[in-house]
Specification:
Blueprint (H helix, E strand, L loop, with lengths): L4 E6 L5 E6 L4 E5 L5 E5 L6 E6 L6 E6 L3 E6 L4 E7 L1 E2 L3 E2 L2 E6 L5 E6 L4 E5 L14 E2 L6 E3 L5 E3 L14 E2 L8 H4 L17 E5 L5 E5 L16 H23 L15
Antiparallel strand pairs: 1-2, 2-3, 3-4, 5-6, 6-7, 7-8, 9-10, 11-12, 12-13, 14-17, 15-16, 18-19
């Protein structure tokens, strides 16, 4: 097998360079002389994550598609800590990315199964306040393109970035209670009635009809005497600007053909 470098990282003080090779070895080099200092053995698949500690020049983190996460002492060429990302009933989950916290006391990783793994000192009690499964209801929603090749949400015919803030749901699409919905930017100050998503029946690509969150259009809160959220106001303003631009474009093109299909209205 022809060796290939899949990832490279300098340590915190730039004295060492660590390279990940497709033969599953990590190599530690002297950055000034180019001398090979250590071969770090432990991974069983390709490594695409190398992260240096924010202030400890001895520490380097590696993670790969084999589900292994290692903390290395690169000055000695030894393992300090090891974690294997085994998922019950599904085998291991490949680790796609890792990052240290600024204080170096924690690091977080994401895997191929949509998990966020948080490691560090202290207890996990603060993280127990939120549900185990958190998705946006708009995740995996199908997109379409209009006649101008702009991307639109298939269901609402709106540009995705102009849609109201999404709702938080579990893996089956069931909405979480209102206290969790306020964690979504733009819904912090919403009244309870605006945090209850609308449920509807949607046909899947296989023809099966399932119940899921279909979203909630921005409520005209001014009529109800409620303080509108900042983000909802921005969405309405952007929509108004978009409509004005569309109207101007249509006026400028009024001398052209009149039977062409235009962009669907994003009301």
């Amino acid at each position: 097998m022809k060796p290939k470098v899949t990832m490279i990282a300098w340590n915190q003080n730039d004295n060492y360079v660590v390279t990940a090779v497709n033969n599953h070895l990590l190599k530690v080099w002297n950055s000034c002389t180019g001398q090979l200092l250590h071969d770090l053995v432990g991974h069983a698949d390709e490594v695409f994550v190398l992260e240096t500690h924010p202030f400890d020049s001895r520490i380097m983190l590696s993670a790969g598609h084999d589900g292994n996460i290692f903390i290395w002492d690169i000055t000695k060429g030894t393992k300090t800590k090891h974690y294997f990302n085994m998922i019950e009933g599904q085998g291991h989950g490949a680790v796609f990315d890792c990052k240290f916290s600024p204080d170096g006391q924690h690091f977080a990783c994401t895997d191929s199964h949509g998990h966020l793994l948080i490691f560090g000192f202290g207890c996990s009690r603060p993280y127990e306040k939120i549900p185990d499964q958190m998705f946006f209801h708009t995740d995996y929603r199908p997109l379409i393109r209009d006649s101008n090749n702009y991307v639109l949400d298939e269901q609402t015919q709106q540009a995705p970035h102009l849609m109201p803030p999404p709702f938080l749901v579990d893996v089956d699409g069931n909405p979480h209670p209102t206290k969790y919905q306020r964690l979504v930017p733009g819904r912090e100050n919403c009244a309870d009635e605006h945090l209850i998503p609308q449920l509807g029946y949607v046909a899947t690509s296989d023809g099966e009809v399932v119940e899921q969150v279909i979203g909630q259009q921005t409520v005209d809160q001014d009529e109800q005497g409620l303080e509108p959220s900042v983000l909802d106001g921005m969405i309405r303003q952007l929509q108004l600007q978009q409509d004005q631009r569309t109207g101007a474009d249509q006026e400028s093109a009024s001398s052209g053909p009149q039977n062409g299909e235009g962009t669907p209205r994003r009301g």
